[in-house]
Amino acid sequence: MKIIDILRLSLGNLRRNMLRTVLTISGVVVGIGTIVFLVSLGFGMQELAVSKVTNLDALTQMKVTPGKEGTSLNQVAVDKFKAISGVKAVSPLLRYSATINYSGYSGESIAYGITPKYLPLEDITVDYGIESFSSDDAKETVVTLAALKSLKLDNPPENALGKTVELKVVKVVGVDKKEEIPIQVKIIGISKDTENKSAYLPIDVVGRTDLTNFDSVKIKINDKELMPAVRKAVDSLGFPTTSINDTVNDINQVFVIVQFILGGFGFIALMVAAIGIFNTLTIALLERTHEIGIMKAIGGRNTDVAFVFTAEASMIGLFGGIIGVSIGWFLGILVNVLINYVATTLEGEASTLFATPWWFALSVIIFAFSVSTIAGIMPARRAAGLDPLEALRYE
Is this prediction's pTM over 0.70? Predict the structure, then answer.
C-alpha cells in the first residue's frame, strides 16, 4: 500500500468519527497550548531581564582590575592589552576622592580620569550638554546631577553648563600621606544620575605617568564571539576580568530551570492527551475489527494495517500541535497587549512578557507529533496482529 493511500485511509477514518477526533485533538491542543503559553512567558521574562542589564554594545566590553602582587595595572599592561588579537579599544581609568566647589558651596565627589575618546566605554549617559571633551588635556568635566545638587546647580541642570568649578583631588603621595590638588574645570556635560556624586575628566588632567597604577581598565572587543579568547588572554597575564556576559549567563541558567518547570505543567497535560489518543485508537480497533479482517483478506499486509493506525495517531498529534502552538502564541500576544495597555494607561513602561522563538514552536510541534505517534504504536501493533478469520467473524 502506498503512503498516499495510507494517509487518505487514515484521514477518512478520522473524519468518519469527527466528534471523537475533535475531542482527542482538543486534549493535545490543551497540552501543547499550555506548554507554549507558559514557556513563552519564561522566554519573555528572560529577554526582559537580559535587556535590563545589558545592550548589544555592552556584550563586547570587559573590565580588567588589578591582579595579585607583581602584576601592576599600568601603562605597560595597557600596551599588552592593545596587542591582543580582537581588541578594538583600551581605556584605563583613575579614581580619586575629591571635593567639588562652586561659589561657596562644596560637596564630596569621586573624580574619574578617563581617556577622552573612550568616554562611552564608561557607561556614562550625557543628558545635557556635549558627550566629548575638546582635547585630551582639556580642563573640562562631565558631572552627575547628584554632584550638582550639593552646589545648588541642579535646578535647572542646564544652567550649570559652561560654569567653571573647582575639583580638589585627593592623591596619595607617600606612605600615609595625602595631598589635595585643585583643578579648575568647565562643566560641558551633565548626567541625570541622582545617586552617584561623580565627575569625569580627561585622564591627563587628573595626572598620570607611565608608572601610574590604574584602578581599572575597560577593553572593547571587535566582536562578542571573540570575548572568550580575549578574556583568556587577559587572564593569562594575571589580571582578573569581569563582563556583563557573566550576568547574562547567570540569568540564562536561571531561566532554563524556570522554563523546564513551566513546561512541566504543560507536559503533564500532554501526557493526559497521549492517554486519550491511546484510548481512542483502542476503541477504534474494537469498532473496526471486522474492517481489518476484510483488509487482510483482500491482500492487506500487517505493516499496512499498522501504518494506518499509526498514521491516525500521528495526524492527531500533528494537528493538535499546530493548533496548540497557534493558540498558545495568540494567548501570549493577547495577554501582552492587555498588560501593556494597563501599563501605558498608568504611565508605566510597555514591555514584552511573552516571546515564542520559531525554533521552540517547531520543536513543540515535532514533540506533539512524536508523543502521539508513540501512543499509537501499541494499538497499531494489536491491529496488525489480528487473525483475519477471527476478525471477519467478529461482530
Answer: no
